[in-house]
Amino acid sequence: MLMTTKDFCSFPANNQEYKDGVFKLQLTSWDEFHKVTKIFNKNTNFIWRGQRNDCEGWKLKSSFDRKLPNIMNRQSKLDEVFNNFKHQLRCILNEQWLNKGNNEIVDVDNKIWGLGQHYGLPTLLLDWTKDPYKAAYFAFFKKSSICQTENRAIFALTKSLRLLIAKPINARFVEFIDYEKGYDETQNGRLKAQDGMFTKALNGRDIEANVLKFTDKKRKKQGKQYEEEIILIKILIPDTERDICLNDLKSKNKTHIVLFPDYVGAVESCKIDLGIDD
Length: 278
Known about the structure:
Helix 6 (132-140) packs across helix 9. The chain is α+β, with helices and mostly antiparallel strands. It has 11 helices and 8 strands. The longest helix has 16 residues, at 74-89.
């Protein structure tokens, strides 16, 4: 089911902006985010992502493409990273699992990339969650710093792209990877705890830029306006709402150790309690 701008008519018009499938909504408080999530109660076709900053340097790009933005041999370097990580994993995981994929579960290459993604490896993936409040935690759990923007950003991306695209193959400008039952907890407990999903963007480009480019091209080709169809939503919440947000999320059992249920998560949780979150 597609989301439209009419679904957000209860919010002030001057706090809204729409262009070619991308809808931006400025909230004035954390409480307003609850109103947003209620709009999505009957629409589970969206996945969510929280980001600490709202600025040009925080685009919807993978860690690999953010850290190596000007690399010429992108695929060769990705292959190098993947093969090296797979070699390291053979030291600690069952070799049969690394060499054989189970078609009923997940593609083994994506599974290996997913493990790397959750432990800091620069990959071609971008993290998302099915839970808007878990996305909010990722947007807010780190403290403000010199580079902190006035707003934290929470994104929602529809999985119903094929309803907007005449040829399904063109939907590959963003690929959704849902592991669901693809891991046991000893392999990647974080993914299960975070209700995690991943996306791959075409050629590693920024997803928002891809949405704008595709929708603009389709509109010009078909001579139609898409003023009500939303592919990507960007929700901005003031940084000043951080304490209120985190206290509310704690009451909902959205805490660091719940979302990162491993040794590293336990250490990070203690550091956060000490006021150290970098």
